[in-house]
């Protein structure tokens, strides 16, 4: 897994520990002990505490790194809008497997850090979707924020459910899980996003009419 952090010292200490932690947590979840991360990185657990303060501090750095790297990847794919870039992203699946696995483990763990993680994904999605709209590569939305949230929840939720239903022979083999997901889901996902699903605006028009003038009375359906 590549490192984007500056400085030779960082490349030989903090980044090596961070990358080892991302890979270990992707395989086993956040219950993995610091000593296992330390062994993977070739350092002592005491050195991890020295650099990151605590296990929570290490996770915060891992969160920031994973979010930034996935953001860069998505921005490159959308900004290029070329078949070559899409194929390059697919070819780089092995490289990004620990990052995706880490994101899924974060969702499985739940709690405040998982919610913050998703909110960062949503905020990033708003930015690169807006850029894609501005360059004419995507259609605008009536509610850009809602679309960004929907796509984020849909994407992460689909991947998480698929991982739960299709556990590989080795449950720590994140790469096998992602290859299986890609083979099952990539074609219908790309086709749906490219050509859409509905052949006309009937359902959308009915919904827009409903939300602009919702029914009232005791028998009316309740909205949240």
Automatic annotation (TrEMBL):
The keyword Protein transport does not apply. One of its GO terms (molecular function) is transcription cis-regulatory region binding. Signal peptide: none annotated. InterPro entries: Homeodomain-like_sf, HTH-type_TetR-like_transc_reg, HTH_TetR, TetR_C_25. Transmembrane segments: none annotated. Gene3D superfamilies: Tetracycline Repressor, domain 2 (1.10.357.10). Residues 33-52 bind DNA. It holds the Pfam family TetR_N. Residues 11-70 form the HTH tetR-type domain. It comes from the Bacteria. The keyword Lipid biosynthesis does not apply. Keywords: DNA-binding. This is Transcriptional regulator, TetR family. It comes from Cellulomonas flavigena (strain ATCC 482 / DSM 20109 / BCRC 11376 / JCM 18109 / NBRC 3775 / NCIMB 8073 / NRS 134).
């Amino acid at each position: 897994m590549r490192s984007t952090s500056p400085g030779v010292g960082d490349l030989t200490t903090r980044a090596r520990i961070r990358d080892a932690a991302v890979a270990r947590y992707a395989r086993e979840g956040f219950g993995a002990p610091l000593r296992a991360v330390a062994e993977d990185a070739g350092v002592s657990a005491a050195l991890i505490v020295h650099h990151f303060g605590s296990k929570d501090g290490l996770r915060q750095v891992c969160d920031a790194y994973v979010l930034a790297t996935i953001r860069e990847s998505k921005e490159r794919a959308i900004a290029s809008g070329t078949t070559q870039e899409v194929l390059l992203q697919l070819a780089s699946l092995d490289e990004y497997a620990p990052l995706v696995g880490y994101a899924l483990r974060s969702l499985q763990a739940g709690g405040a850090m998982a919610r913050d993680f998703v909110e960062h994904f949503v905020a990033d999605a708003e930015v690169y979707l807006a850029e894609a709209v501005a360059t004419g590569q995507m259609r605008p939305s009536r509610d850009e924020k809602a679309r960004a949230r929907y796509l984020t929840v849909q994407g992460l939720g689909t991947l998480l459910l698929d991982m739960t239903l299709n556990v590989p022979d080795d449950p720590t083999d994140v790469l096998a899980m992602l290859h299986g997901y890609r083979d099952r889901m990539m074609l219908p996902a790309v086709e749906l996003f490219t050509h859409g699903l509905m052949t006309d605006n009937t359902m959308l028009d009915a919904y827009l009419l409903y939300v602009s003038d919702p029914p009232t009375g005791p028998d009316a359906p309740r909205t949240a």
